[in-house]
Amino acid sequence: GQNIDQPTEMTATEGAIVQINCTYQTSGFNGLFWYQQHAGEAPTFLSYNVLDGLEEKGRFSSFLSRSKGYSYLLLKELQMKDSASYLCALPPRGAGSYQLTFGKGTKLSVIP
Amino acid sequence: GAVVSQHPSRVICKSGTSVKIECRSLDFQATTMFWYRQFPKKSLMLMATSNEGSKATYEQGVEKDKFLINHASLTLSTLTVTSAHPEDSSFYICSADDTGELFFGEGSRLTVL
């Protein structure tokens, strides 16, 4: 099966940088997703990592280490609107399918 | 990016009635759509995979007679919660795959009184 672990909650200050970690176990790695979910809304896609390393997209970056089963989402220049849950997710084993397994999510609170 | 639309966004119904939620891919065709359920402060739970033109595949523990899924066209999947009860109150979300990227609908909040 697949297993995903993330911290439950984090708090950070506006303008700061925060790193949200995700560790996972899976028998057939096929990429890792990060989603942002504001309360009462559906998740929105942030990133998809397949290869090791850091991928930067504006204020958000995502890092992957396949050998360590570890990923993190890095949020820079935090804004109040970044307060949300951040979900780490794995596709199932095998290519061509997108039935994601989601972690429980990390609730980020950005304070002034 | 691609757009997936859900309707209704909020619905309140009486216990024992049935509720239908629609999920549409507006600018792409989706042979596969997914239905999720989310309880407050919990992660998304995959309920079923909806396949165009064939029966849906349900996850373990999800009652297929209670949560009817129909995927009659390449742009529309529907989830019908039959004989709804208060414990079915939840946030239901659909998603669809467009050339390798998963897009989510806005979600539908169901409240059963």
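qc> Chain B has a mean pLDDT of 89.
qc> done
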